[in-house]
């Protein structure tokens, strides 16, 4: 019986320790802490789905999709709708080609 209580206590401590780590990571990100890209990797959006929605009405879907997925991978956001709304994703709106044209559709 004593061994069972000890195991239960140890398991509880491990679980609580894991929860404390998770809350400290989210608290640090909410306060603007730099976590070395840990949260960026965890909360990536589904770029192919977002870009297929964005490029659904384009006349050149494959080209639109290719450039959109590159921009999405870099910025981790895609503006809503099929065109415009780039003010909702500033990084997406700033990327330019070598000819200084907007790269992201």
TrEMBL record:
Keywords: Signal
Signal is among the record's keywords: yes
Cross-referenced InterPro entries: GASA
Keyword Signal applies: yes
Pfam families, per the entry: GASA
Cleaved signal peptide residues: 1-22
Domain of life according to the entry: Eukaryota
Similarity section: Belongs to the GASA family.
Name the UniProt record assigns to this protein: Gibberellin-regulated protein 9
Source organism: Dorcoceras hygrometricum
Lineage: Eukaryota, Viridiplantae, Streptophyta, Embryophyta, Tracheophyta
